[in-house]
């Protein structure tokens, strides 16, 4: 029998997803630029129901959350793929409180970056 996982250790799916054409419209940039942001690893996109989507919470109109590209780089340097990075960003952490993704929107973004950097060691 395995130990039960506490609710704080469980990843949650983002509340809202945005497909790439809608995101391009929201950011007022061409959809090709959205694809470039994903290729440059400045934006996280994963397939859901066969469609490439971005968690809406990671985008602050009119731009990507300020610290997101740095956090994504740190997670990739620690060996995380996109799905794993998404899971990390959306796993509740009582010490933040909330999820790292939610913390990126506030004054705890630097702490999220510090924690992502520690994953590489």
Automatic annotation (TrEMBL):
Coiled coil: none annotated. GO terms for molecular function: DNA binding. It holds the Pfam family Rv2175c_wHTH. Keywords: DNA-binding. InterPro entries: Rv2175c_C, Rv2175c_wHTH. Residues 8-58 form the DNA-binding protein Rv2175c wHTH domain. This is Rv2175c family DNA-binding protein. The lineage of its organism: Bacteria, Bacillati, Actinomycetota, Actinomycetes, Micromonosporales. It comes from the Bacteria. Residues 66-120 form the Rv2175c C-terminal domain.
